[in-house]
Write a structure and sequence with these properties.
Strand content: 15-25%
Number of helices: 13
Structural class: alpha/beta
Radius of gyration: 25 Å
Helix content: 40-55%
Number of strands: 12
Shape: elongated
């Protein structure tokens, strides 16, 4: 019998859900109050899905909160952890793109992400909580390079762990950018424009991504019998606009405008900071000095001048991490996926001034 308009408007009760599904009201009450222990997952999801589809709204609880609770205690969820010192409020330009790709993939599977914390804030109490909920989660994505001991500990707890933008062979799956290919494409582009004198700036010393990107540029230049005229690492580890500005000031102070005609940055935000510094000093971007970046994020074309950039799409890294989480087969080996790089020419890099 099709419900009338007045029946549709009536608030759905737990008693009605129990009657419609042919289960006890006690079971419905336990499920909708967040209890998962001792309840079959199929029954849990059946009751919650029916309640949500039919407009059930717990008294005194917003539906968003109820959904969040449901995901954490039994519905399909994937946790993620951010490297130190990142937080939800400053997730970083790069990892916000990675999270978007992960979210898009999980949405197709009817799942959601759950933020489990930042690396440097995790404590024994957090790990104790993880041990209670790990089997109710589809898997975990670690975003960025974290301490090896933390990766190993998490890999022993969660059913499937994916390392995004970093790798630890033999411990968990990983999805990384093809940094060598990005460096090769960028150096080729800049040498085609006539550049022979290069500077590198940004990137945190002793981190995997920082070292790989820097060494990849060095190797790409060596293949052309060229070398870096100057290197200015980011000693603070921020790799943001402020750090890029400071690196640019240091380069100008040490080698001036004539020391290098092409400056390559660890990432787009540092490049934007360097461009601000050069503009402040009256230097024409793309003519007197060309600036390029080794990543591909929204800052590439969100401001003028557009950035010459090369790198793997971070959204693709997130999407592939999600696909690894939902891969049905249980392999006896770990997957290590390398995402191809793309080159985007921009106004920030131009031919060498004659």
């Amino acid at each position: 019998m099709k419900p009338t308009t007045s029946q549709k408007a009536k608030r759905l009760s737990q008693k009605q859900i129990a009657k419609d599904l042919g289960v006890s009201q006690t079971l419905v009450s336990m499920v909708l109050n967040g209890r998962a222990e001792g309840i079959a997952k199929t029954s849990f999801e059946r009751i919650w899905n029916y309640a949500l589809v039919n407009g059930y709204s717990p008294r005194g609880m917003k539906m968003d909160a109820a959904l969040s609770n449901a995901h954490q205690v039994g519905m399909s969820t994937v946790g993620y952890i951010l490297r130190a010192p990142l937080r939800l409020a400053n997730k970083s330009n790069f990892f916000s793109h990675v999270h978007q790709g992960l979210h898009d993939c999980l949405t197709e599977h009817g799942a959601k992400t759950v933020f489990l914390g930042s690396e440097d804030l995790l404590n024994d109490k957090d790990f104790e909580q993880f041990s209670k909920t790990r089997m109710q989660m589809r898997g975990l994505v670690i975003m960025g390079e974290v301490e090896r001991s933390v990766v190993r500990r998490l890999s022993e707890m969660f059913p499937r762990v994916i390392y995004a933008a970093a790798r630890l062979p033999g411990v968990c799956h990983s999805v990384v950018a093809n940094e060598e290919d990005a460096a090769e494409k960028m150096v080729q582009h800049l040498t085609d424009l006539g550049h022979e004198k290069f500077a590198w700036f940004g990137g945190t010393v002793n981190t995997m991504r920082g070292e790989i990107r820097h060494q990849s540029i060095v190797a790409a230049l060596q293949r052309r019998n060229l070398k870096l005229q100057h290197t200015e690492f980011d000693m603070s580890g921020g790799n943001d606009r402020r750090e890029g500005f400071d690196c640019a000031e240091a380069i100008l102070k040490k080698i001036g405008v004539e020391g290098a005609t092409a400056w390559i940055s660890f990432n787009g935000l540092s490049a934007r900071g360097a461009i601000s510094c050069l503009n402040k000093n009256g230097i024409t971007i793309g003519k007197e000095i060309s600036v390029a970046a080794l990543d591909v994020t929204r800052v590439r074309d969100s401001e003028w001048p557009t950035l010459a950039s090369a790198g793997s799409l971070p959204e693709e890294i997130g999407r592939l991490a999600g696909e690894l989480i939902y891969r049905d087969t249980e392999e006896s080996y770990f997957q290590d996926i390398v995402v191809p790089a793309k080159l985007f020419t921009g106004e920030s890099a131009g031919p060498v001034a004659s």
